[in-house]
User: Fold this.
Amino acid sequence: MNIDSLQFAHRFNGISGSAIREIFKLLAVPGMISFAGGNPSPDSLPGEKVGELAKVLLTEKGKILLQYGATEGYAPLKESLVPYLKDRFSICCVESEILPVTGSTQAMDLLCKALINPGDKVVVENPTFLGNMQCLNLYQAHLIPVDSDDEGIDVDHLEEVFKTEHPKMLYIIPTFQNPTGRTLSLERRKRIAALASKYGVIVAEDDPYRDLRYTGTELPSIKSFDTEGWVAFMGSFSKVISPGLRVGYLVAHPALLRKCTIGKQSSDVHTALINQAVVDQYLRQDLLMPHVQSICKAYGEKMETMLQMLSKCGGVARYTRPEGGLFIFCELEKDRDATALLKKAVDQGVAYVPGTHFYANGGHHNTFRLNFSMPSVEQIKTGMEKLSCVFSE
Amino acid sequence: MNIDSLQFAHRFNGISGSAIREIFKLLAVPGMISFAGGNPSPDSLPGEKVGELAKVLLTEKGKILLQYGATEGYAPLKESLVPYLKDRFSICCVESEILPVTGSTQAMDLLCKALINPGDKVVVENPTFLGNMQCLNLYQAHLIPVDSDDEGIDVDHLEEVFKTEHPKMLYIIPTFQNPTGRTLSLERRKRIAALASKYGVIVAEDDPYRDLRYTGTELPSIKSFDTEGWVAFMGSFSKVISPGLRVGYLVAHPALLRKCTIGKQSSDVHTALINQAVVDQYLRQDLLMPHVQSICKAYGEKMETMLQMLSKCGGVARYTRPEGGLFIFCELEKDRDATALLKKAVDQGVAYVPGTHFYANGGHHNTFRLNFSMPSVEQIKTGMEKLSCVFSE
Assistant:
């Protein structure tokens, strides 16, 4: 029988793969200035340090680190995460509420595995991170987008949706949101924790950018205001140590975490141990925050440069002014099409991501997302001049 | 609202977690001799070598290996896998038919994600690896067990099931099967490849133990007889380098592999790069086969010791005689209960896994699985004497 007759699972109906990851493939042209990714700067990646740590760890503890590990995670890392979560996110938890995962993408996958039946309603910010929208779509969730303003998601509208639609979950990126760069205000954080508990909705709080703050004041996580256990917190070391290591973590109520752990048994058994152990050393030896400070210095300068260039960029009608993170979100005039213009931009040697991909229902063709962490300051200046030309035509 | 009111997804109905991984937790007693796991011997884990490789790789290529990578996998590893697959498994394929994954457990998860709708029928060997049965159960597959004999699965019965039940998939471990240690004969391998194509059934061929052969002659994989693309081959480096690294791979028809790759985007984005790069070095520098030879020497001696002890073990009515792998499967007399006896065995300081967990429909309470890779030769002698006492009572 010809393999063309093979039927794939219904969950793939309408799924065509991450638009961003497809755009990445077009960027392999030498000299291309890319504002399209969400990658850390190559300069921020501590190859030598991680190499040293890995060698010492594997020499001293190779019999443990190369063996099978517990699905529940590498115990020393969990021990180190408790004070880190308290200090950085105001989250008070114990080790049994923490599950190290293979990048925080896996945390989202496990939450969906534990909770989502086909057709279940999930509220997402409008716009939001498309990778996790794809995850939700593969679990056949019914997405309900709720608009946001400069203080983050519209909580009055959110309560209305909680009340009338009875969603299973809210997926939210509260700090330096992807793609907008916006940060949810303190009042709204408190209110969302309260609404979750009032209406019985799981909040999947995705906070990978938090440590990348260049101006303004830190805010506690939504999870820190959670008294009943309705908030699940997803953290990542991809933006502050290395994405290539694939280490993140999930903090959740033990009953929910147990289902996620069972789900992880048949996802990948456990997260690679040497990778967990390297992150543990970053926390245990107090290597993380000095490293983060050096990253923030460089990224802050890049963000400032990009904001300055945007202020004089032709064709750009509006843009966000983040206090940290990796992204700025921009609008052209209403009648313009950022997807059509991308082709012209790529011809000129500069790339971005059209904003339409970040909206659950598409549209918003005049928007686009810029990343400033990956390019150098010089590339930001040159690239933004090129964009200004393309948009001014 | 109290979190106790939280409803989990239907896929968790009846799922309680891996029985084996729960048994492992009971084995933390000092001095316990465990025949329960499927772990490599600690002596076989190359901590120093992996540490050296990791340091060199991260120092020289840290900017690449710590950055985000392609979901499709680390290109040098895929390049190295092509000749390895040809040489070791008689599989002729190109790089675009290979997907590195986070342990071969993820390969199974991705195949299910790509193919299985709730209620789809999947044929499994009776008994088979319970971890992947749990994976199938979480995708709400309807399992159809087919018995096996000393030459592996009963192919006449299998054809009957293919013809009458129209299953979506066959899950099979052809070499040194888990839990039986049996190897599928050459004729049956050819016939299964032909049946898959004739009836349009995907064969998920799981072959992690193949390189661990201590006697007898190597056989080509089922995949090597696949002409149409119905066989998907799952490989692993967990048993021959390290399970803690979590590196395996999937070889499949490009159309199927594409769906698996899209599924992997939202599972964990990509497999950790340094882990892929270490495995690549094992292949590229010809480190793997000499390492495998040293493992086989030690494991072969352990298997022989265990088979000798079994030949004089009280209460054991029957056992398999594998030519490699990690496991021997045993039967007590029909009326005895290996689960009840496990408690007595653990009290005596020795553990195994009751065989009932490996049967899709349970039963077979008089069976149990023994692992010989993890304990030392001395522990095998002592532990089997203890078991003989327990079973003779």
